[in-house]
Amino acid sequence: MDIKDLLLKNVMIMDLKATTKAAAIDEMVAKYAAEGIITDADLYRSDIVKREAESTTGIGEGIAMPHAKDKAVTRATVLFAKSEAGVDFASLDGQPVHLFFMIAAPEGANNTHLAALAALSSLLIDPKLVTALKRATTPDDVLQLFGDAQAAKEAKDKADEAAQAAKEADRNAAAAQATRPFVVAVTACPTGIAHTYMAEAALKEQAEKMGVDIKVETNGSEGVKHKLTAQDIAQASGVIIAADKKVDMPRFDGKPLLNRPVIDGIKKPEELIQKAVAADAPIYHATASVAPEAADEDQKSLWSRIYQDLMNGVSNMLPFVVGGGIIMALSFIFENVFGAKSMAFTFTNNLGNYAFSFLVPVLAAYIAVSIGDRPALMPGFVAGYMATIASASVVHAQNPAGFIGGLAAGFIAGWLIVGLKRLFAGMPHSLDGLKTILVYPVIGLALMGLIMFFIVNPIFAAINGALISFLENMGTGNAVLVGVILAAMMSIDMGGPFNKAAYTFAIGIYQASNFTDGRWMAAVMIGGMIPPLAIALASTFFPQKFTKTERNSGLSNYVLGLTFITEGAIPFAATDPLHVIGSSVIGSAIAGGLTQLFKVNVPAPHGGIVALALTDQKLGFIISLVVGAVIAGVILGLWRPVAKED
């Protein structure tokens, strides 16, 4: 596909009016929607905002490349927009952005589309093209500039490929060894559309200037390209990893390795290549007890590591929660309609229970995997399963270690495998295969079983039993306070650590009660429904406080809120955190307290308004939800300043 097929004349904004980052995104998204490139402006904008929350796409030099790949996109397109005054887009160099390239890729984008997007990204490394684009006045000028640049690059790529083949042949010839420095690199970003290929282009261009041979593997949306061979890695003086997502690391064992964000590949290619050529980097050990990210100076904080490990477990557990929970919810409806002995109830109830039986094992297994990689999967899974069995303890407690025991099991199993890796690091490389098929599985399982049987299960069974007893005997006043706290946590970060902690707590109690105690699930579910509903109500009844685009987005939040999708509020919270989060926390806290006052029990971990059919306190559910949403919506509507239309 030609780049000019992505850059459509009718999808260009030659005089962007916006003066802020949020307004610029809104203006470009509105253009996409007006031209039929996207079918759901709210979904696409939400994904753009989420990508910006990970790291700014303002790459510097007056360029920003916001991008998203989702089902709202009808065809791969790049919207070109130019701002004469410039927009503060939180760019890496702190300078205003004048050129925007908003990339829209369909969820099922084929390799042709992705290759064209990659080529477009790599062209923007050329400062001459950037300067010319800033002077362009018409869409035809833009198309001509990119057409010329693409033709020049294709010719250069062919010449480079021939030269690369010749260099590799020379390196394989004994007489030509060590004539030029040689390094290898891997580039990757979460979406794999833009930054992956810009980093590749920047590294290759800089290496050519420095007289260094380089081979760059790209891990983009179209898969792995230019895959590094064992021979490439062996011959390289150093390795550069410029990536914001996990790449295949064990193959670099024993090599000097720089592990940096993908943006460093774009902005600091000379520094990275110099260090790689000089082998001025820590030696990477695949069996080291630290995560690959800690191979360089960019180490994560302890809390960041713990949160990442926990979220790996929670994210892999959630499909079981949602799928099993909704199926189980259906079983309760079938029980009321057809009776407890009906096949419809028996089948769906058993199926839901089958899914729920994996909650703690999957949680523990994937926490362990995040810490100790694949060898930790099996010990973590078995330890998680043991946490669900009351008899799997030296004291034969009446209660299992449960959800909190499973959390502990996951972390212990992960770090146990890390310890075993360090312990057996001195084994000959010829026995590496023995570690994964014998040492880690057998010793890891045996040690983890002993730890669970004699330490974890006895301790956490007692804690779990005490917690359940405390909650069962809690007075109304204390229950209301807990409901207030849990529901407020659902709105503080809308899907972040506080939200997940509250939801995980409610799931743990629900699981420990054999899926009958849904009091806390009622608090977190209604608390999570409040933020999008508050935005929907405020944008409807206080229209002057929202732009036209925001009002349109607000309508979809009625559906998102009623179906317990808190993330519908994120785009609004990202642009106006004080007013949106502040009002949502107040409304959610009130709603959460009311659920406990009315003794609302929701025996399902998901579903939103659908869960109303499952509770015997339907009026209490409705009052809690309506009161919380109205209070939050009114506060937001009164508190928020009048919007300025672009």
Explain this structure to me?
This protein is α/β, with parallel strands linked by helices and 646 residues long. The chain has four domains: 3-109 and 124-150, Mannitol-specific EII, Chain A (3-Layer(aba) Sandwich), CATH 3.40.930; 180-295, Response regulator (Rossmann fold, 3-Layer(aba) Sandwich), CATH 3.40.50.2300; 302-469, no CATH class; 476-639, no CATH class. The protein has helices spanning 21-34, 41-54, 111-123, 127-135, 139-172, 195-210, 230-235, 262-267, 269-277, 302-338, 343-356, 359-372, 377-386, 402-423, 432-472, 476-492, 497-512, 519-541, 548-562, 570-575, 577-597, 618-639; strands at 12-13, 58-60, 63-64, 67-70, 77-87, 97-106, 182-188, 213-220, 223-225, 239-243, 257-260. Helix 1 (21-34) packs antiparallel against helix 2 (41-54), helix 16 (476-492) crosses helix 17 (497-512) and helix 18 packs across helix 21. The longest helix is centred in the last third of the chain and has 41 residues, at 432-472.
